[in-house]
Write a structure and sequence with these properties.
458 residues, alpha+beta, Cytochrome p450, 5-stranded mixed beta sheet, 20 helices, 50% helix, globular
């Protein structure tokens, strides 16, 4: 058994926590330079955290058994929003049960049924762009992502409840995705309800409004089931576990909120970064547009999914500034050894996706956006891990990539876009994600003359 302990940064704990909240990438880069592939930052409630960035250590973490590590209680920052029955807060048999019930609608043929819907929503949202009038891309990507979730996941497409839920979710997500909202999870006093206009009170008020609408929708669906509906809520209402039991209303609510939080900011952020890099680098845009043009006027979704350079562009986007810059935290149930370091029971363990993706031995000139690196070689699941890994890998990874590619193809084949200025865009924390500061200012030059592809499900 190893006796080596992870090195501990010597800066005051409050300073480390502030950097984790405000400047996490700079903080991680500094710790990596000082301490190498493993270190143990002091982060308030996460003071027992150990960060790993060597692929061999990542492999040990991802191939662990359910019995060796747990994860649910490490996600306490998300409990306020998601509830106790979220997949992200469960362990053991309950985690496996929920994962098995949630997996089918987010993969395979069922997922492909949403292709036309994704393209239609993208077309509708982007119709607001006016020629030569600058706009921030990120709010439009958020609007696309939210509408995809409301229609494909929640199955709500029209009516007063649709408009009310859309408005209230927008307000709630704006609060929770900010750095202030993220900080609330670390400081109990900020969570207290001191009245409607206190941070905690305002959050509770918004959450209650959203919950009322979601529970009303669940009740209506139970009373009036429609076997022809293919949205994810309908499929979950019909799903049964191995014992023949359905998800309860509370479980459904918590999992719907999990899919919302896990899929909204992340997808919008990835799309914003992709638009930035494509239009920042003329060679990348030229190669990508040549590939898209080769499909002809009416490609199907399957052909889009097989495009090698589009896939490389998406992969490089998720590599250089991974939306989730650390993986799911594991908690050691007993003493163990990871990467040659001895860890005590209750140690919090996380793979650092961002640091792995910037290892110069894997990705030379790692801050250069170069999609070709994904055409030149394949990376193992411990070297490239934008969605985490093991039995805690993001359950919506396939759906996220499907949506990302279809939205990009719809936009790029419909519009000629350009960046509004030449200034580099810097990353900043936005809730649990790393987003482009400023939202990516762009301008629409013209509509492309080629007709918009009609993507089929084949």
């Amino acid at each position: 058994m190893a006796t080596k302990r992870p090195p501990v940064p010597t800066a005051p704990g409050l300073w480390q926590l502030s950097q984790w909240i405000l400047n996490p990438l700079d903080f991680l880069d500094d710790c990596s330079r000082r301490y190498g592939d493993c270190f143990a930052p002091q982060l308030g409630k996460l003071r027992n955290l150990v960060v790993f960035s060597h692929p061999d250590a990542i492999a040990q973490i991802f191939t662990n058994s359910y019995e060796q590590f747990e994860s649910g209680r490490a996600n306490f920052v998300l409990r306020l929003m998601l509830g106790d029955n979220s997949l992200l807060l469960l362990d053991g048999d309950r985690h496996q049960r929920h994962r098995q019930l949630l997996m089918p609608p987010l993969h395979g043929e069922r997922m492909k049924a949403y292709g036309d819907l994704i393209c239609q929503i993208t077309e509708t949202v982007t119709q607001q762009w006016e020629a030569d009038r600058p706009f921030a891309a990120r709010p439009f990507m958020q609007a696309i992502s939210l509408q995809v979730i409301m229609q494909a996941v929640f199955g709500i497409t029209e009516g007063q409840r649709y408009h009310d839920l859309k408005e209230r979710l927008n307000t709630l997500l704006h609060l929770t995705s900010s750095r202030f909202g993220f900080a609330m999870g670390f400081f109990s006093f900020m969570q207290q309800d001191w009245g409607r206009w206190s941070p905690g009170g305002h959050f509770q008020y918004l959450k209650q409004q959203v919950d009322e609408l979601l529970y009303a929708e669940i009740a209506d669906r139970r009373q009036h089931p429609n076997p022809n509906q293919t949205d994810i809520l309908s499929l979950l209402l019909a799903a049964r576990d191995e014992a023949g039991e359905p998800l309860t209303d509370i479980e459904l609510r918590d999992e719907l909120m999990t899919l919302l939080v896990a899929g909204h900011e992340t997808t919008a952020t990835a799309l914003s970064w992709a638009l930035y890099w494509i239009h920042r680098l003329p060679d990348v845009k030229s190669k990508l547009m040549a590939e898209l043009d080769s499909l002809g006027d009416r490609p199907d979704a399957s052909a889009v999914m097989r495009l090698p350079y589009l896939n490389a562009v998406c992969s490089e986007t998720l590599r250089i500034y991974p939306v989730g810059f650390v993986g799911t935290i594991r908690i050691a149930r007993e003493a163990c050894e990871i990467g040659g370091y001895a860890l005590e029971p209750d140690t919090l363990i996380t793979p650092c996706i961002y640091l792995v993706h910037h290892r110069e031995d894997l990705y030379p000139n790692s801050f250069e956006f170069r999609p070709d690196r994904f055409l030149e070689r394949q990376f193992s699941p411990y070297e490239y891990l934008p969605f985490g890994g093991g039995h805690r890998r993001c359950i919506g990874a396939a759906f996220a990539l499907y949506e990302m590619k279809l939205v990009l193809v719809t936009i790029l084949t419909r519009y000629e876009l350009a960046l509004a200025h030449d200034r580099p865009v810097l990353p900043q924390r936005r809730g649990v994600t790393i987003a482009p500061a400023g939202g990516i200012d762009m301008v629409m030059r013209r509509h492309r003359s080629a007709p918009q592809p009609a993507l089929s499900r084949s």
